[in-house]
Amino acid sequence: MELLVLSNVNLAPIARRVPGHAVTLGEYGTVLLGLADPRSAVYAPDLDAVVVLLDADELLAAAELLDELPGALDAFSVARPEVLLVVSTLRPDPATVATYAAAQDPDGDAARAARFDAALRTLAASNANVAILDLGLVFDRHGRERLITRAFWYAGRIPYTNLWFEECGKHLSGLLDAYRGPARKVLVCDLDGTLWGGVLGEDGPGGIALGEDGVGKCHRDLQRRIKALQENGVLLAIASKNDHADAESVLGDHPMMILRPRDFAASRIGWNDKVTSLRSIADELSLGLDSFVFLDDNPVERALVAEHLPEVAVVEVPTRPELLVDWFVRDVAFPHFARLRILDADRAKTEQYRARRGRVAEAKQAIDLHTFLASLEIRLDLRVDDEFLVERAAQMTQKTNQFNLTTRRCTPTEILEWVRSDQHAVVTLGYRDRFGDEGVVGLAVLDRSGADLALFLLSCRVIGREIEDRLLDRIEELARDAQLPAIECTFIPSARNGVAAGFLAARGWSVVVDGAAQPGDESVRYRKELA
Amino acid sequence: MSDDELEARVIGLICRELDVSDRSITATTVSGDIERWDSLGHLQVCMALESEFGISPELEELAELDSVAAIVAYLRAAA
To answer: Around Cβ A120, how many Cβ atoms within 10 Å?
Structure first.
């Protein structure tokens, strides 16, 4: 946009600090004259916006200008309805020689500045082409010490440091972009580690961090901000790798959830990769992926989405939960969902989209998962009978519910016995990729004397990366080394291990006994010939 | 930082602040040589020195920072 910046001080350095817009500067100190004079630059025909950025302390020292300015701004905005008029709020220095009395003074700087700001709000409420830029965004974040300079003020009437010009220019640019409409419409949220702390599949509904204390409050407060965004017209969606029923029950019934199922315009909870989920959400909502912002604490998921869907805005989620709220406001809401006004129609948006859906077309666009997985530089660490990993192995048998063929729970003592016995081989799977080290994420136990795969599980954090195959390869190799002609495994279905049901069949194991034939027994006995 | 590196950084900063080509500023340039190094240009150069080098020149020092050599000498003394 073409802008003209007017001020009561010298703001020349702002000219090249409003990214994406062309700035002209009015002669400083001639704000009133400029607004009133039809021959002045503010009446130039190709101007898109006039920006009035005021130094509060200078303005408050000029009583006449302060009194007349609201009227002049009103007259201008009416005379040029096609031009956006941006006016800054006043942020006077609260430290004056009146010391503590300044706060009490009904005609002190703070009180007069507040009256001016109130007049601006009245103006913006009645004139659709008036927008307010709150300089508190700059002053409160960085502090006057870093923003005010005296040497340049006395040398050339420039009261601010480069930091002020950069921050102010950035917000001005953001505001002008918002004037042309919000950049993005949909916020797609992950669940584990994002809307709540912890991993639902491992920690259980009672074990996730969501509440009014500590880490739980960090996530609950984040949910409050997300809910506020939704009430302002942003559509929310879920893309989560989780057991569908478990996640739905937390969303619906967990007493500390702020966001509820009705707040989401679309939801994909299951074991699909997130690229497929995002495409299918875009289909369901009939919105382009370029209107999506993707929120996920897992850097691997973010990389997958960034690589395959470059049009989606992928935001870097802080790893420290206490930073989530400030980060969300500053680095998600401002850059991606900035808006100048919130209308009643915005508040009803989620309902509209929920009503519209129904024809849920499953997008089956296969992505090239192999290329992506190769780019992760996965390094696996397969260990047999390592006593150091006994504690972790036992913990996984207790916590892992989804990818778990037998759902057999073990104590460290039991695992240690197996590790020390020649009859059993305890195989652990360590995982590391270019994003970090996940530690031990898989476990399998081969009972050599019974030729039986007694236990096989994989943490849900790494499902979908084809590493379970390597774990099974190692087991088959150990069975061959023990001269076993075949091994068997009893898959025991549970309420939550559906994701693992087809695994052995897909790996060439055949069904020898299908428990479903007998009432009450749902287990399936698989066999793999090794000869 | 060596004198050469410091000088190169200063020249880069001046070129950027005044929006002139990097060939037009050398170690011996003084403000009078460059049309855009006027009073406003000078303030912008000094403000950039302040934010990038963390210095805080006094009001009466500002006018003295009117050449590449003077700026480099000032930064050396302030370091």
So the answer is: 23
Q: Confirm or reject contact between B39 and chain A (CB < 8 A).
A: yes
CA separation for the pair A254, B19 (Å, rounded): 59
Window A:142-201, CB contacts with B under 8 Å = 149-152, 154-156, 158, 161-163
- Residue reference for tokens 């303005």: A59
The size of chain A, in residues, is: 531
Give the Å distances, CA to CA, from A276 to A279, A286, A311, A520: 5, 15, 14, 37
The strand pair at A424-433 and A379-384 is best described as antiparallel
Interface of B with A in 2-31 (CB under 8 A): 19
Residue A89 region by backbone torsions, left for phi larger than 0, else alpha for psi between -120 and 50, else beta: beta
Locus of tokens 């000088």? B7
- A 10 A CB-CB count for A276 gives 20
Interatomic CA distance for residues A238 and A187, integer angstroms? 8
Evaluate the CA torsion angle A226, A300, A310, A2 in order and state its sign: positive
CA distance A202 to A82: 57
Structure tokens at A346: 């915005």
| pTM beyond 0.80 | no
For A364-386, letters b (16+ CB in 10 Å) and e give eeebebeebbeeeebebebeebb
The answer to which of A30-44, A114-128, A139-153, B59-73 has the lowest mean pLDDT is A30-44
- Of A266, A263, A241, the C-alpha closest to A251 is A263
Report pLDDT for B34.
Answer: 93
Contact criterion met (CB below 8 Å) for A230 and A342 = no
Beta strand A379-384 pairing with A486-491: unpaired
| Pick from A224-228, A259-263, A282-286, B1-5: least confident | B1-5
pLDDT in tens, A64-78: 889 999 999 999 999
Cβ(A297)–Cβ(A190) below 8 Å: yes
- With bands split at pLDDT 50, 70 and 90, how would you rate the model's confidence at A28? confident
Average pLDDT of the segment spanning A462-489 = 92
Neighbours of A182 (CB within 10 A): 17
Contact indicator for A148, A161 with CB cutoff of 8 Å: yes
DSSP A27: P
- Give A40-84 as a DSSP string: SGGG-TT--EEEEE--HHHHHH-HHHHHHHHHHHHHHHHH-TTSE
- Contact (CB<8Å) A156/B39: yes
Q: Does A490 touch chain B (CB under 8 A)?
A: no
- Sequence-distant (≥ 6) Cβ neighbours of residue B79 within 8 angstroms: none
R_g over Cα of chain B: 11
- What letter does residue A376 receive in the DSSP assignment? T
Instruction: Say whether A152 and B39 touch across the interface (CB within 8 A).
Output: no
Cα(A364)–Cα(A168) distance, integer angstroms: 46
Burial A493-513 (b: 16+ CB within 10 A, else e): beebbbbbeebbeeeebeeee
